[in-house]
Each structure stands twice: as structure tokens, then as C-alpha cells.
Amino acid sequence: MVNKFNVSRAPMPMALAIAPNGAITGAFTGSVTEKQLAGAMVSRCMEKCLKALQAGKMVLLCVQNKKTASTTRPCKGSASSRVTPATSRSRRSSCSTPPTAPKRSS
């Protein structure tokens, strides 16, 4: 586990919160509180974003609600940037649930 998540130089003891897709959603040293663990429970959208960021990929996230003046224009702009000449294998990934920011402790 230490090698898989590249945490050999991290202070120990340490607990990692890991999403089902393998993304690290929280890293805690020392004792961990219930509140910290609850903060590491994130939405599927946040899991996807964190997984991509942790793999060194760029993430472009379009966030809006019903009050957004033009609900289609922002997402059309982000959709047009999905595929670039350098990476024609980019995949579309939409998230329907709003993400919550993971709480991290140092």
C-alpha cells in the first residue's frame, strides 16, 4: 500500500480514504475524527475528478444550476475543449451530482 500510493515519506501513522475507483479522497495523520472521515466521503463526480487529477490529467468542470442565465452555453464551451489534437482519446465524462470538497488533515 505504501508503494502503491507513494506515501513512503509521509508522516506515520497515516490513514487514507480511498474511493471505489482508487482516488484518494482523504489523507489523515495521527488520530482521525468521525467528522474528517465524513468529509472524505465524496460524490462520484468528485471521485472522477480526483482520479484524473491524481493521474496528472487536466480536469475541466462546468458547474451551474437552474439560476444560470444560459444553461447550455457554458457546457457547450467546455465540451468543445474535450478533444485536442494532442489527445484524440479524450473521453466525455458527465457528473450529475454536485461534488463536495474533501476535507484533508495535515
Provide a short characterization of the protein structure:
This protein is an alpha+beta fold. The chain has a two-stranded antiparallel sheet.
Can you tell me about this structure?
The structure is a single chain. The chain is of the alpha+beta class. Helices cover 24% and strands 10% of the residues. The protein is built from 3 helices and 2 strands. The protein has a two-stranded antiparallel ribbon with strand order 1-2. Strand 1 and strand 2 form a beta hairpin. The longest helix has 11 residues. About 12% of the residues have low confidence.
| Major sheet strand order | 1-2
Query: Mean pLDDT across all residues, rounded?
Result: 76
Distance between the termini: 19 Å
Q: How many strand segments?
A: 2
Report the order of strands and helices.
EEHHH
Secondary structure class reads alpha+beta
- Segments where pLDDT lies below 50 for 5+ residues? 87-92, 97-103
The number of helical runs is 3
**Whole-angstrom Rg:** 17 Å
Helix content: 10-25%
Biggest sheet features: 2 strands, antiparallel
